[in-house]
Amino acid sequence: MSAEDRVTIRKLPTGVPGLDEILGGGLPEYSFNIIAGSPGGGKSTLAHQVVFANATPERPALYFTVLGEPALKMLRYQQQFKFFDPAKLNTAVRFVNLSQVVLEQDLEAVLAEIIKEVEATHPAVVVVDSFRTVVRKAVGGTGEAELQGFIQRLALHLTSWQATTFLIGEYTEGEVRDNPVFTVADGLFWLYQQVERNSIVRKLQVMKLRGQASVPGLHTFRITEDGVQAFPRNFGLTGRTAKARERRRLPCGVPGLDAMLGGGIPEGDSLLVVGPSGAGKSVFASQFIAEGLRLGEPGIVAIFEERPEEYAGRAASLGMDFTQPQRDGKLSIIYLRPLDLSVDEAMREILDVVARTGAKRLVIDSLAGFEMALAPGFRTDFRESLYRMIGAVTRTGVTIVSTVEVTETFTELALSPYSISFLSDDIIRLRYVEIDGQLRKVIMVVKVRAGDHSKDICEYQITSEGLRIGERLTGYHGLTTGVPEPLDLVVPEPEE
Question: What Pfam families has UniProt attached to this entry (predicted)?
Answer without folding.
Answer: ATPase
